[in-house]
């Protein structure tokens, strides 16, 4: 690892929580707590900006955006606002090196559209080259993924899925990984999630980051790269990875 940031409390780290009041299902707020706490352990001065409906002038200060899951009802309440008040600033922030983690309902709306099982179509903002159509049957259960992310160790991600959407990737999107257990993007092509530029979309609730600390640090480190902040020093993740490995062992027993 490179020069640690530790002890340099002047280095700020800001998390932007998109639609914290509405897109926060199945404990997804655990991702916010993990990003903030791990950044603090890395010696960073943390800040949380809750980006609910309406215009927000401070989006360019955000290092990592989190966009959580939500049922069709919540997605219907926010997709217009996402286009009108967040799209341009989010696109600009990502082009300046900010990172985005989007889970399930948030993931779907970063694509071109999400269509409900009843045929109602919510426009997405097309930051990810994916489309989603909901089926009648929900995909619910534990998920284990073998990731394609260069350098991520362990190479597995574990979580929980609960969605009716079937997401398919276009040519500009790469899968986050291969499904080892569960359904993933669509239950048919064995892919899970999407990685496109600084954006990661995934169906993994859980919440995702507490049992996948390596992904949390990946997001923090990539966001700080634009400020030449140096590499993060490793933390003692024995408890977190014990939880991760317990899910892996349970999957192997199935
Ligand atoms: N409403 C979407 C679906 O059912 C997203 C659900 C979620 O965020 N868990 O696929």
Can you tell me the CATH superfamily?
Class I glutamine amidotransferase (GATase) domain
Radius of gyration: 17 Å
In the residues, how many domains can be counted?
1
Q: Per CATH, which architecture?
A: 3-Layer(aba) Sandwich
Q: What does the overall shape look like?
A: globular
CATH topology, what is it called? Rossmann fold
Give the distinct bound molecules.
glutamine
Order of helices and strands: EHEEHEHEEEEEEEEHH
For the record, the CATH class is Alpha Beta
**Which consecutive residue ranges, at least 5 long each, have pLDDT under 50?**
1-7
Largest sheet: 6 strands, mixed
| Count of alpha and pi helical runs | 5
Percent in helix: 25-40%
| N-to-C CA distance | 37 Å
On the 0 to 100 scale, the average pLDDT is 94
Q: Strand fraction band?
A: 25-35%
Tell me the number of strands: 12
Which structural class matches the secondary elements?
alpha/beta
Topology:
Blueprint: E1 12-18, H1 29-41, E2 45-51, E3 64-67, H2 72-95, E4 99-103, H3 105-109, E5 113-115, E6 121-123, E7 130-147, E8 156-169, E9 177-181, E10 191-192, E11 194-196, E12 199-202, H4 213-225, H5 238-252
Parallel strand pairs: 1-2, 1-3, 3-4, 4-12, 5-7
Antiparallel strand pairs: 5-6, 7-8, 7-9, 9-10, 11-12
Helix pairs in contact: 1-4
Bound molecules: glutamine.
The site of glutamine has 13 residues, from helix 2 and strand 8.
């Amino acid at each position: 690892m490179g020069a640690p940031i530790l002890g340099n409390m002047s280095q700020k780290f800001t998390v932007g929580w998109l639609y914290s009041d509405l897109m926060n299902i199945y404990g997804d707020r655990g991702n916010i707590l993990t990003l903030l706490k791990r950044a603090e352990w890395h010696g960073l001065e943390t800040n949380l900006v809750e980006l609910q409906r309406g215009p927000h002038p401070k989006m360019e200060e955000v290092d990592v955006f989190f966009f959580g899951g939500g049922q069709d009802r919540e997605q219907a309440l926010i997709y217009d606002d996402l286009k009108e008040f967040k799209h341009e600033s989010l696109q600009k922030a990502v082009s300046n090196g900010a990172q985005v983690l989007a889970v399930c309902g948030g993931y779907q709306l970063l694509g071109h559209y999400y269509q409900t099982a009843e045929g109602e179509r919510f426009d997405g903002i097309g930051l990810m080259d994916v489309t989603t159509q909901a089926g009648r049957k929900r995909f619910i259960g534990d998920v284990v993924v073998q990731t394609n992310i260069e350098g991520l160790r362990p190479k597995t991600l574990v979580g929980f899925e609960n969605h009716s959407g079937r997401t398919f990737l276009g040519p500009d999107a790469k899968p986050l990984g291969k499904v080892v257990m569960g359904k993933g993007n669509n239950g048919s092509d064995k892919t899970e999630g999407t990685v496109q530029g600084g954006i990661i979309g995934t169906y993994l609730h859980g919440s995702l980051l507490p049992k996948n600390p390596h992904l949390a640090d990946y997001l923090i480190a990539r966001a700080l790269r634009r400020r030449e902040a140096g590499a993060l020093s490793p933390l003692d993740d024995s408890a977190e990875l014990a939880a991760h490995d317990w899910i892996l062992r349970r999957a192997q027993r199935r």
